[in-house]
Amino acid sequence: MALSVATFNAENLDFEADEAIFEARKAALAPLLSQLRADVLCLQEVNAPRRDANAVRDFAPLDDLLSLTPYAGYERATSLRPGGDEPADVHNLAILSRLPIMERRQIHHDFVPSWEWRPPMAGEDETVSAVFDRPILYARIAAPGGPLHVLNLHLRAPRAAHLPGEKSEGRWKTSAGWAQGLFLAAQLRQAQALEARLFVETLFDADPDARVIVCGDFNADSYETPTRILCGSPEERDGAAFAARYLERLEARAPAQRRYTVIHGGRPVLLDHILASRALSRRCESVEIFNDDLVDELTAQAPVIGSLHAPIVARFKA
Fold first, then answer.
1. Number of domains in the chain
2. Which residues form the domain of 99?
C-alpha cells in the first residue's frame, strides 16, 4: 500500500481574540492540509487554550480546523507539558494517522539529561538550568509491511535564551548577555537533536531495517549541526553500520528552486525537514513543498492568516 507523510508548522494554531481571524485562518489552512493528502500528518505549534478558567487545556482549535478536512477521523497522538498531565498552552505537537497508532510516547531528557550552565560572565554561584522547551513526540503506527516509527519534533529557535538579570523590559542589557543567551539556545537545539538521534538508535538496535521517519521544524537548515546529528553519518568509510542507520533528507529530492519552507529577510531557507531511514527512502517516489503563498517572516503583518512555514509531503510507493 502506498503511504504519504507530511509535516507542517501550523504557526500558533489557536482561537483568536477576534473570531473572524480564526475563521480566516481555517479558510486558509483547511484547503492546504487537504491538498497534502497525507496518511500521517505531523503538526507543530498547536496551542491548547482553556475553554474557561477552571477547564483543562484541550485542542479545540485543532478539532475545529480538522473538522473541515479529511483528517477529522484520524487517530491522534499529542504532547503534554513535561511533568504535567495536560497540554502546554502553546507549541504542542500532534501526529495524526489514518492508520492505527499502536504506541504513543513523548521524550524529554530521557537520553540527554538537563544540565546546569554557568555563563562565563556570571558569578560563581550563578547558573542557568538548561532544559528543553518541548518534548519530542513519538508514535509507532501499524502500517502494511511492518511498523512505522514517527518522531515529530520542534527544536528551539535560534533566538537568545533567557538569562536571569540580563534583560530589562524585554530588552537585553548588554551585547555580552545576548551572546551568551544565543550560545545557550544553540546548545539546547543541538542537545535535543542528539536526544532524538539516540532514541532512533534504539529503534535500529531492535530492528536494523526499521522504517523510521523524523520530521518537523528543526529551526536549522540541511547542513547545520542539529540536522547533521539527526541524519547520522552517510559515509560508507565510517562503516556499513553507519550507512545503514543514516536518515536521508527527503526534501533534497524536491526541485532545487522549491527547496525552502520559510522566507527570512528575503532569503528562502529550509527549516522544516522529513528524514527517512533506508527502508523508506528507497521507496520514496516524490516530495512536494507547498511554498507558493509564503510571506516573509520578518515583514509579515500580524495576524498571520496562514502560516509562515510551508508544509512538506513525501510519498512512498507500495
1. 1
2. 3-316
Q: Are strands 3-13 and 40-46 parallel, antiparallel or unpaired?
A: parallel
CB 216 within 8 A of CB 154: yes
25: left (phi over 0), alpha (psi -120 to 50) or beta: alpha
Measured CA to CA, the distance from residue 55 to residue 67 in angstroms comes to 22
Which CATH number belongs to the domain containing residue 148 in this structure?
Answer: 3.60.10.10
Place of cell 536494523: 208
pLDDT tens sequence across 208-242? 999 999 999 999 999 999 999 999 977 655 667 78
Cis preceding-peptide flag for 303 (omega within 30 of 0): yes
Between CA 223 and CA 194 the distance in angstroms is: 15
Give yes or no for a contact between 178 and 168, defined as CB atoms under 8 angstroms apart. no
Please name the helix (run of DSSP H) or strand (run of DSSP E) that holds residue 117, with its range, or none. strand 115-117
Complete DSSP assignment for 50-92: BSSTTSPB--HHHHHHHTTSGGGGSEEEE---TTSSS--SS-E
What are the φ and ψ backbone dihedral angles of 177, each rounded to 5 degrees?
A: -65, -45
Give the residue among 316, 315, 297 at the shortest CA–CA distance from 9.
297
Question: What are the C-alpha distances in Å from 59 to residues 16, 66, 88?
Answer: 14, 11, 10
Q: Is the pTM of this model over 0.90?
A: yes
